[in-house]
What we know:
By secondary structure, the protein is mainly beta.
Amino acid sequence: MxxxxxxxxxxxxxxxxxxxxxxxxxxxPAVGGLPAQEVTVPATVGRTVFRLEMGMGAVERVExxxxxxxxxxxxxxxxxxxxxxxxxxxxxQRHTYEVLAPGREPPWRWSDPDRRTYRIHTxxxxxxxxx
Length: 131
């Protein structure tokens, strides 16, 4: 029997990548003697709002910029890691984001039940004008 819902999710993911994605550079800095690595991948921009309990009834709201990236595009680098970088160019500017999430939240999650797409949480590091 065909998994109709699974096939539908795969089709939707293809459409997301085809019509809602933009090219970004996913970069893993050099660590422990390993060289830096980078790959250009299509990514869809999203956001996640985190609610952090600060104690004494105080709650802090933190918003992260997310990148939805098909896992197959990052297979050469392995799983996303805290400290990786995502570089996005738009409107004559280059924005660099660090992969991380607030508090003890994981820096990425699966975006779909079939584990095809990462939802990678980031924080803006730098913005520079492209010469």
